[in-house]
Amino acid sequence: MSIYLEISENLQKGKAKIVKELVQKAVDDGLSAAQILNEGLLSGMNIIGEKFKNNEVYVPEVLVAARAMNMGMQILKPLLVEDGVQSTGRVCIGTVQGDLHDIGKNLVKMMMEGKGLEVVDLGTDVSPETFIKTAVEQNCQIICCSALLTTTMEVMADVVKCAENAGVRDKVKIMVGGAPVTEEFCAQIGADKYTSDAASAADAAVELCR
Ligand code: B1M
After folding, report:
1. In angstroms, rounded to a whole number, what is the distance separating the alpha carbons of residues 112 and 16?
2. Sequence-distant contacts of 17-23: CB under 8 A, at least 24 apart
């Protein structure tokens, strides 16, 4: 079995320590950081993402796989920076103002990182102004808003308005999601993209960044 496949399979099983050791071994053997990332870690995360979409695995499996991915990334990150490997794109993400739920938002973040996107995590209770300011200052192509409460999903409309008022609406895409959010709501507030789950959000973000 190739070391890439070994990394991918152990990542899917959430075996963080083994993934870290295998990534270190691959680096020591002289394999390129980009190839270890793409054919090992990202390949494993993609498989988990697809299985999550199809309800073949659930939140706990995704969380342990993401932990394993992060362990592998600890070794690769400095090498990738040295090699100047390009990320797929840059996005900022947060749970909207008034809302403290972050489990779904964190899953979306992990899936996006699993697709090679750089993710600026603003945490929870994020104001529309903070989303816009971050997107502008950190050159994010997409603002990703999560909401779990019917009372806070309305803040997403303010994020769209705030981007319009700041004159940046044509420069940044706005993605929305979370349990109470729907495709209709997304269209109604003038956001760009709604997805119902974390894996689809990551796929959509990669498409939008292209
Ligand atoms: Co809260 N809570 N909660 N809660 N909580 C809900 C959401 C609720 C449905 C429970 C209920 O009444 N049945 C209800 C909302 C009702 C409503 O608005 N209609 C509710 C309430 C009322 C509240 C409080 C107001 C309770 C109170 O204090 N009286 C309070 C609000 C606090 C606040 O935010 N200001 C509150 C507090 C909390 C806890 C702190 C205790 C805790 C949050 C802990 C945390 O997140 N760190 C909590 C929890 C855990 C829940 C439930 C049980 C689980 C939510 C969750 O994490 N789901 C929830 C009931 C339920 O759903 N069964 C409930 C798992 C997560 C993976 O799913 O976030 O939907 P989700 O993410 C999915 C998709 O939606 C999507 O991807 C994810 C996975 O694929 N997705 C995106 C998410 N964001 C996306 C963004 C995208 C794309 C997809 O693009 C950008």
Report:
1. 19
2. 17/71, 19/68, 19/69, 19/71, 19/72, 20/71, 20/72, 20/74, 20/75, 22/72, 23/71, 23/72, 23/75, 23/76
Tell me if 59 CB under 6 Å of ligand 1.
Answer: yes
Q: Strand, coil or helix: what is 119?
A: strand
Global pTM value = 0.87
Q: Is the CB of 108 under 6 A from ligand 1?
A: yes
**CB contact at 8 A, 132 and 159:** yes
Structure tokens at 78: 């400095």
Give 99's pLDDT tier (boundaries 50, 70, 90): very high
* Alpha-carbon span 140 to 192, nearest angstrom: 15
Taking the alpha carbons at both ends of the chain, their separation in whole angstroms is: 33
Render pLDDT for 175-195 as a digit per residue (tens, 0 to 9).
Answer: 999 999 999 999 999 999 999
